[in-house]
Amino acid sequence: MKIAFIGLGNMGGGMAANLIKNGHEVRAFDLSDEALKAAKDHGCNTFATAKEAVEGVEAVVSMLPNGGIVKSVYESDVFGHAPEGAALLDCSTIDVATAREVIEAAEKAGYDMVDAPVSGGIAAANGGTLTFMVGGTDKAFGRAKPVLEAMGKAVIHAGDAGNGQAAKICNNMLLAIQMIGTCEAFGMAEKLGLDPQTFYDISSVSSGQCWSMTSYCPVPGVGPQSPADNDYKGGFATALMLKDLKLAMEAAETANAGTPLGKHAKDLYAKFADEHGSLDFSAIGRTL
Ligand code: NAD
């Protein structure tokens, strides 16, 4: 397929490279010359504007920083410029309300559009092993699926427009709470005289077991290799976890959902991000 890709940063760069590897033709646009140069090295054709990149394509994929940018790029550069009937896929993490608004506008302009945020970080984007959670009509999902399959290991239809974003922020709110709980448990175990490895051996096969413990242990030298073993460098940055928690709290307020632990997790990450925004989110244990 001929696909336009807008936003080739840490995540989008690897995703576009995987589209090329799977035989697609990619027309790339980014505001950053550096990102465009890297895209060219991966085999993308690069363009000076988004409007040119979307000319004649069958699909548009975007991976952008926030909802305001997504809305403005689609409204000014995609609608009316990409051929009518093209499939539009926004893979950025943005607020549910903006995702629904942009998809509604896309449908009015004659496009099938999905929100398709990802689980998995830069390594999964480069390796083509992302999980996509997708919101949109059955028809839009059916058209987006083959494009997403070229960049990920799982593509799941979450329901109507915006439901991909809803799944993403609920999942990441749970992850943040779970990670803080895991750090608290390891911290208290140590203060009570339990060796961290011994606590891991017990809890990882008991009812406290969770992903933050057994797949991404926040304690160096315990469990499988994780950012904790690299001084909390790499992985999923605290600043990005904070972004997702802010989106989660906005959505909770709009939906009138009770999320006291989500709010507390957001406050703890906000405080930690002031000085340590670039560290992996599992470093939150340092604040306890
Ligand atoms: P990034 O900052 O590395 O990349 C964003 C890119 O968008 C940059 O290259 C920037 O120049 C470009 N851009 C900004 N405004 C633009 C515009 N108007 N037109 C064209 N290009 C524009 O960010 P990232 O880490 O790649 O994250 C992208 C999205 O993926 C975000 O929504 C983020 O929340 C989400 N996400 C990131 C991760 C991660 O681990 N980095 C994981 C999951 C989801």
Automatic annotation (TrEMBL):
Any one GO molecular-function label of the UniProt entry: NADP binding
PROSITE patterns named in the record: 3_HYDROXYISOBUT_DH (PS00895)
Catalytic activity: 3-hydroxy-2-methylpropanoate + NAD(+) = 2-methyl-3-oxopropanoate + NADH + H(+)
Protein name in UniProt: 3-hydroxyisobutyrate dehydrogenase
Active-site feature positions: 168
Gene3D superfamilies in the cross-refs: N-(1-d-carboxylethyl)-l-norvaline Dehydrogenase, domain 2 (1.10.1040.10), NAD(P)-binding Rossmann-like Domain (3.40.50.720)
Matches recorded under Pfam families: NAD_binding_11 (PF14833), NAD_binding_2 (PF03446)
Pathways per UniProt: Amino-acid degradation; L-valine degradation
Keywords attached to this entry: Branched-chain amino acid catabolism, NAD, Oxidoreductase
GO biological process terms, semicolon-separated: L-valine catabolic process
Similarity-based family: Belongs to the HIBADH-related family.
InterPro entries in the cross-refs: 3-OH-isobutyrate_DH-rel_CS, 6-PGluconate_DH-like_C_sf, 6PGD_dom2, 6PGDH_NADP-bd, HIBADH, HIBADH-like_NADP-bd, HIBADH-related, NAD(P)-bd_dom_sf
First-level EC class: oxidoreductase
